[in-house]
Design goal:
Blueprint (H helix, E strand, L loop, with lengths): L1 H7 L17 E3 L2 E6 L2 E3 L5 E5 L6 E9 L5 E9 L6 E2 L7 E2 L8 H4 L2 E2 L18 E9 L11 E10 L6 E7 L2 E7 L8 E5 L9 H8 L3 E4 L15 E2 H13 L8 E6 L1 H12 L3 E7 L10 E3 L2 E3 L10 E2 L5 E2 L25 E7 L7 H14 L5 E6 L16 E3 L6 E3 L4 H23 L1
Parallel strand pairs: 3-11, 14-15, 14-17, 16-19, 17-18, 18-23, 23-24
Antiparallel strand pairs: 1-2, 2-4, 4-7, 5-6, 5-10, 6-8, 6-9, 10-11, 12-13, 13-15, 19-20, 21-22, 25-26
């Protein structure tokens, strides 16, 4: 797959000259830029170097991506060539633009909608069969974000793949369960993980496909707004998630006997419930989650956990029209809301809690402290906390662009997620390694 891609993916737009494999760096005049590897996994770094500049020449490096909907995302950074006329992003400092400092992957995680595009869109891959194509260009002088850049000196393209050769994707329609199962290449068996996201709904596959490239049998599990599942998030039934666990546990390519879960936002909350009530689940990665049930009721047999509600009167709106919902959720510590608490102290498995201290979507850092306090109150030490200063709400795999404000899928309004770009990017890179280590430790 990648061998073919290297030979033919010369650039983002038709009509450009095709370079054979191994000669993917483009050039204008004497300058050239190389991005290596030219095709590789999206959770791995690249090395970017510029050669052939004048000594101490100021240049702007830019990255461009066109998503599946045709929206343009861009980023830029200011560099100065060394005495040999070279720039190496692994050692040289960005002096301005969308980020500063030595940040080898800064052009990737600082991508945001271009000035002519609708703001607050998130660059998230919806198709994992094709790569995200990134064009990197070098321009004369220092040009600010959102302005017309200087003369193009060199260009190169790079492909960011969310799956690897040999990974199998199986669309799942098993009983009531829907989703996609990703299996690594090889005979297995592999540790099994169920992957869930939040209230954006639908089928989100990129994290599952990356987990499969790292040796996990990963089931991307939607729970509304997909095929014949409910269109909107109504009351949830844990039996649906239990059926998914049993399917994965029975699969001949899955190691078992224990299954892991990873979730973000509402998905993390469901992970809390699954490891608490389903003994087959032995490891839960909870990213920016709450250990109380929220929004919708959760049913399991005769048990019902009512959902905490949002108080709309506590939502504030900035002068730019961004909604801040940080204070809007009902207080899970209020005795009146005790019926919504998930009894996580009953869980026999292990928790990995991942939070950003600057999460403004809700109080995930406080919720993590509450969960830890409750576990310790019952003599439990079956948890690990990763808490990142400056990180916001949605902590994804590494090098995916940071988005401090994102459009709510239901309301179509911009909602503050919080975080600072560089700190959030570093949190994504660090936590991704720790998540894999945690799952391997407890799933074998």
């Amino acid at each position: 797959m990648w061998r073919v891609a290297r030979a033919w993916a010369g650039c983002l737009r038709p009509g450009r000259r095709r370079h054979p494999a191994g000669l993917r760096s483009g050039s204008r005049g004497a300058a050239s830029v190389a991005v290596e590897p030219a095709a590789g996994l999206a959770d791995e770094p690249v090395a970017t170097k510029v050669l052939g500049l004048a000594p101490r020449q100021p240049v702007t490096l830019r990255a461009l991506v066109v998503n599946e909907q045709g929206c343009l995302f861009d980023s830029c950074a200011h560099y100065q060539a060394d005495s040999l006329g070279e720039v190496d992003l692994s050692r040289d400092t960005s002096q301005g633009g969308d980020y500063t400092g030595v940040e080898p992957m800064g052009l990737f995680w600082s991508l945001s909608p271009a000035g002519m595009e609708r703001p607050y869109q998130r660059l998230v891959p919806k198709q994992i069969k094709t790569p995200m194509k990134v064009e990197v260009s070098v321009h004369q002088g220092h040009s600010q974000p959102g302005t017309i850049p200087g003369q193009v000196l060199a260009k190169a393209s790079v492909e960011r793949w969310f799956t690897a050769p040999g990974v199998r994707r199986i669309r799942l329609k098993e009983g009531s369960v829907r989703g996609s199962l990703f299996l690594p290449s090889g005979d297995g068996p592999f540790p099994g993980v169920i992957d869930m996201f939040g209230d954006e709904g639908g089928l989100i596959e990129f994290r599952s496909s990356l987990l499969a490239t790292r040796g996990f049998a990963a089931l991307s599990l939607p729970y509304f707004d997909f095929e014949d599942l409910p269109k909107v998030m109504k009351d949830l039934h844990l039996e649906y998630f239990e059926e998914a666990v049993r399917f994965l546990q029975r699969h001949p390519k899955v190691k078992g006997p224990g299954i892991g879960v990873i979730g973000t936002g509402k998905g993390a909350e469901l992970a809390f419930s699954m490891i608490t009530f389903l003994p087959q689940v032995v490891a839960a990665v909870c990213i920016s989650g709450c250990s109380s049930n929220t929004i919708t009721a959760l049913h399991y047999g005769e048990l019902t956990l009512p959902g905490l509600r949002f108080d709309m009167s506590k939502i504030s709106i900035s002068e730019t029209g961004v909604f801040d919902i940080f204070e809007a959720m009902d207080d899970p510590l209020d005795p009146a809301n005790s019926h919504s608490l998930i009894p996580i102290e009953e869980a026999e498995g292990h928790f990995l809690l991942v939070v950003g201290k600057d999460d403004r979507n809700w109080k995930s850092s406080l919720y993590a402290e509450m969960a830890i306090g409750r576990l310790r109150q019952h003599g439990k030490e079956n948890f690990k906390l990763l808490s990142y200063p400056g990180a916001g709400h949605r902590i994804d795999p590494p090098f995916l662009p940071f988005c401090s404000v994102a459009l709510d899928r239901v309301l179509g309004l911009p909602v503050l997620g919080g975080g600072e770009r560089k700190a959030h990017a570093h949190a994504q890179e660090h936590s991704w390694r720790k998540i894999q280590d945690f799952l391997r430790l407890h799933l074998g």
